[in-house]
Design goal:
By secondary structure, this protein is an all-alpha fold. The chain is built from 8 helices and no strands. 74% of the residues lie in helices and 0% in strands. The chain is elongated, with a radius of gyration of 19 Å. The model has no long low-confidence stretch (mean pLDDT 84).
Length: 189
């Protein structure tokens, strides 16, 4: 029986995430992950019995946890505008890491096993549900809260893809803060 090494499981997940982002899921091997983590393949399988698929599930799960906690920080807000302003600030703060994590997953989505694909798509559903639950506190119309939550998720995801991932440069393009502020003004009406 193998003895657990403190922190090795987290190290494996971190290096695997980096390798998946750099080379893609399909092009990353168990040997590469083990080498980057400084362990044997046997040690890797000790923590992740199903190998690379198991690692991928854990990486996606950790992304989900991090993203949801980034947008659902505790706090009470006086009104919808205050909540939306705080949400914009949290998204701005966490967007570089979220974008890095989601970009390679979004590109590889069609090639992932269905369980992992569903888990990834579930993150967007979870993100929308968290935002919707907050919006319901300020809006009496639950259908409007649902739609606004989708608009927020799609708008920020689209902003990240267009201006940050694809690097669109234009003098008329708003900064993330300007974009968030304008979006929140529209939503608050």
């Amino acid at each position: 029986m193998m003895e657990e090494t403190p922190g090795l499981k987290e190290t494996i997940l971190t290096v695997a995430s980096d390798l998946f982002a750099k080379h893609g899921f399909a092009a990353t091997s168990i040997k590469q992950i083990a080498k980057a983590a400084g362990c044997t393949t046997a040690a890797l399988y000790y923590y992740f019995e199903d190998g690379k698929a198991h690692i991928l599930r854990e990486v996606v799960r950790s992304y989900s946890t991090d993203v949801l906690s980034a947008v659902d920080e505790e706090g009470e807000f006086d009104d919808l505008s205050s909540y939306l302003e705080q949400l914009t600030q949290r998204i701005r703060q966490h967007m570089p890491e979220m974008r890095k994590r989601f970009n390679w997953l979004a590109l590889e989505l069609p090639n992932l096993p269905i369980e992992e694909r569903d888990q990834f798509l579930g993150q967007f559903l979870g993100l929308q549900r968290v935002i919707r639950a907050r919006l319901v506190q300020y809006l009496e119309d639950h259908d409007r809260a649902n739609m606004l939550a989708w608009i927020i998720v799609c708008a920020f995801f689209g902003y990240g893809q267009l201006f940050q991932t694809m690097g669109l440069k234009d003098t008329s393009a708003p900064s993330l803060d300007e974009f968030g502020h304008a979006l929140m003004e529209i939503i608050s009406q």
